[in-house]
Amino acid sequence: MALAHLRYPGTVPSATGRREAPRASARRNGAKGTESATAIEARDLVRRFGTLDAVRGVSFEVAQGETFGFLGPNGAGKSTTISMLCTLLTPTSGIARVAGYDVVADRAEVRKRIGLVFQDTTLDDYLTAQENLRFHAELYGVPRSQTGPRIDDVLEMVGLVDRRASLVRTFSGGMKRRLEIARGLLHSPRVLFLDEPTVGLDPQTRTHIWGYIDELRQREAITIFLTTHYMDEAEHCDRIAIMDGGQIVVEDTPERLKASVGRDRVQISTADDEAAICALEERFGLDAAMSEGMVAFYVAHGEVFVPRLFAELGVAIKSVSIARPTLDDVFMNYTGRTIRDAEASGSERMASSPWMRARRR
Amino acid sequence: MSQVPIDEAARRDEPPSRPPGSGAAATVQHRADLAAVRVAGGRWQDDVRAVTMVWRRELIRFSRNRLRIITSLVQPILFLFVLGTGLSSLMGRGLGAGGSDFKTFMFPGVVAMTVLFTAIFSSVSIVWDREFGFLREMLVAPVRRGALVVGKCAGGATVATIQALIMLALAGLVHVPYAPSLIFSLVGEMVLAAVMITALGTALASRMAQVESFQVVMQFVVLPLFFLSGALFPLRSLPTWLAVLTKFDPLAYVVDPMRREVFDHVRAAPAVRTLFAGGVTWNGWNVPIGVELGLTAALAALFLGIAIYAFGKTD
Ligand SMILES: Nc1ncnc2c1ncn2[C@@H]1O[C@H](COP(=O)(O)OP(=O)(O)OP(=O)(O)O)[C@@H](O)[C@H]1O
Ligand SMILES: [Mg+2]
Residue B113, Cα to own-chain centre: how many angstroms? Predict the structure, then answer.
């Protein structure tokens, strides 16, 4: 609801009011000559720090209006990739275009069109929330007449209106994050970069922040590029790329990625678990085992399989649960480890040779 | 009217793979707004706004930090009234008629010292900005780096001038008259010195990654500048090695005109005046005030240029 206030007074509502694919509206902008339907385009991006290959040839495309997520353990190269896309780091090789402009050749043009929320906070603690926003508005050349209303709007969106005059120093971590998101949106960027928007926050605040982000992408034609190493957060993205060791391992919608793992986890409790395990083995060729007091097994399309189970198992079933694969399973499937294992060995892995990395896969 | 379907879309439990940007009506409507906020950028007006804002931030931060205002006055006041009084009694007599004594001599030096320390502290605060991340917010903005540097220097120079003005207000206590012409030229020289030193500090800060390097700047730049400037002792009749070193101290060319002007307004015996405010000489040539100030201005421009260049290079 709050985002409705982002509109300016005197704006004429859309004449059609009909639903339109975001790509179509993007193309219309393209007619003006500066924008294309692709918000972000990266080709073989490489970044080396000395002998360390932080990013080792990353390519992807993000369409206008899309929310794209980089998912990966610590040290995967997510922040390094973002820094290159934001013109803060020059790629060692490869090219990238953001909002239609090359990140090396047209830095200034890119910068005008992007909003940034860095992994570490970049607020001035000794200024108030309002003064931080004001500073941003002046540097980004937001027209004077709109600065005031625009600041009101973004503050309202993140629920900080009543704290606008407080020093940022007195803010909690979650409030600072919200203020940074507000600031990133102040100049109406085409593309918003969020580097780990919820890192270090408690679960409730994380949910809160995701509420804002979800609302934002519903209402603004904004492209969001974010990174996270929380599996559950990647679900908020239209598409995700799993990054590991400086490379994209796989890239797709969260739904399709989970489908690609293929199998659902089914748990049943029966009158005779021993018999059920035998029956599953004999009749369906499934390898079942006891887990948490229930018979557990993996099967493709669990929801289709379960009715057959009732008909053909021959043992009375008391309860059934089907779990879809999670992104944890996806990560496991593509990297051979859980993300937690990857985090644990992160530093050592980054330092290791490509040969070592190849062997571990 | 167009709001309704969007609100529904927001509430609906959609699969994660839904096509991007479901709120299409809002999308279309919002486009116009986004375009309205965006500006051309790169015009001189944008740079002026950036300079002004960076400058204002310095002033806001300065005014919030009352403790810093007070504590940074303690040191010059100690120098002027404790060290100055002590040295006066050591000399056993005043510098001449009218009650002027060694404190009168030290006064311009202490004002210059206030400028020096405040200006360096303000400009080196860039290192704190880097440490706490705010520098990134500035560097990634679509403005010329030069605008940021100019704003920062203007802010630091303003803050240093304000601090020095507080010291200047104490002139009467050391028998320096509040003659408008004297105050006017002293303020002008303070501003010039403040700009030069802030630019120097900013140039140094552009290459400093850690807060710890501030100590290095203090020991290797600020204190030598201060001690060799003639703020505390006359530069005439020094041993050659020291006399030569003082001629390479930019601050000496700020302290000297200030002192000469002060002595123009107090009554002192000609011999005393020559000893204490004889001016800087280059190979026997008495450097005129105009040349000294011109040199300071040139150095200010040089340091500013270096600072702008250095910040243009940082990622
Ligand atoms: N400025 C730098 N100099 C040297 N090495 C760097 C630099 N920045 C990043 N690295 C290295 O590059 C690798 C990738 O770092 P990056 O910050 O991109 O990871 P990340 O995916 O963002 O991790 P995290 O989840 O911890 O934020 C790491 O091994 C890191 O040590
Ligand atoms: Mg990171």
Answer: 12
pLDDT truncated to tens, each residue of chain A (361 aa)? 344 334 333 333 333 333 333 333 333 333 333 445 789 999 999 999 999 999 999 999 999 989 999 998 888 999 999 999 999 899 999 999 999 999 999 988 899 899 999 988 999 999 999 999 999 999 999 999 999 999 998 998 888 999 999 999 999 988 999 999 999 989 989 999 999 888 877 888 888 888 888 887 777 778 999 998 887 788 889 999 999 989 999 999 988 888 777 778 888 888 888 888 888 888 888 888 887 788 888 888 888 888 888 888 888 888 898 887 777 778 877 877 677 777 766 444 444 334 333 333 3
Cβ of residue A77 lying under 6 Å from some atom of ligand 1: yes
Q: Which residue has the tokens 């040290």?
A: A75
The alpha carbon of A80 and the centre of ligand 1 are apart by a number of angstroms equal to 6
Give the up-direction half-sphere exposure of residue B168: CA atoms within 13 A in the CB hemisphere: 24
Does residue B154 lie within any of the structural domains?
yes
Q: Are A12 and A22 in contact (CB under 8 A)?
A: no
Q: What is the DSSP letter of A324?
A: P
A317-323: strand order across its sheet: A289-291, A294-300, A263-270, A317-323
Total domain count, chain B: 1
Nearest CA to ligand 1 atom 3: A49
Per CB-CB distance under 8 Å, the chain B contacts of A216 are none
Of A21, A23, A68, A22, nearest to A41 by C-alpha is A68
Instruction: Tell me the best of A45, A46, A47, A49 to mutate to test the pocket of ligand 1, counting ligand atoms within 8 Å of each CB and taking the most.
Output: A49
Interface with B, mutate which of A1, A11, A19 (most B CBs under 10 A): A19
Mind giving me the DSSP string for A70-83? EE--TTSSHHHHHH
CA distance A182 to A117: 9
In a domain, B33, yes or no: no
Contact A13 B5 (CB under 8 A): no
As beta bridge partners, residue A244 has A247
Domain that holds residue B264: 43-312
In a domain, B10, yes or no: no
Q: Which two tokens stand for residue A141?
A: 């050349």
Report the atom number in ligand 1 closest to the C-alpha of A243: 21
